[in-house]
Sequence to fold (147 residues):
Amino acid sequence: MKRLSKNLAETQNLATEWLGSQLFLQENKRKCATTVFLSGDLGSGKTTFTQMVAKLLGVKKIVTSPTFVLRRDYPLAKNQGQFKKLIHLDCYRLKGPEELKTIGWAEILADPANLIMMEWPERVGELKSNFTINFKTISENEREIEF
Fold:
């Protein structure tokens, strides 16, 4: 499904809609983390979307891009269902799947209480995800978001 966002408020609405309709409908009997892959050009809205999801899940901290640190962890409020932690990854500077070890991929993937939002998944090879969201810049203010 492709949707057009013309501003920040519309992106927030799309994040709200997606979070409510998809993420929490999954079975709670997962054996590993839930992964959300975010693909798109620089500035296309990947971090903004993650910020919106974090806000909706009750994250109180300011969510910033993990471009230089690769990983940021945010504890979630106790009333956020099966998830206890949002993990935001930025793989732009990684050169392959072997470099995922530097961010503790195996450990964070093994915990079903983790929600992993990964920017630039294509940089680390063929991985499986529960969800993939593609972002495309249409104009200075417009983004096409494909779920």
Remarks:
- The radius of gyration is 14 Å.
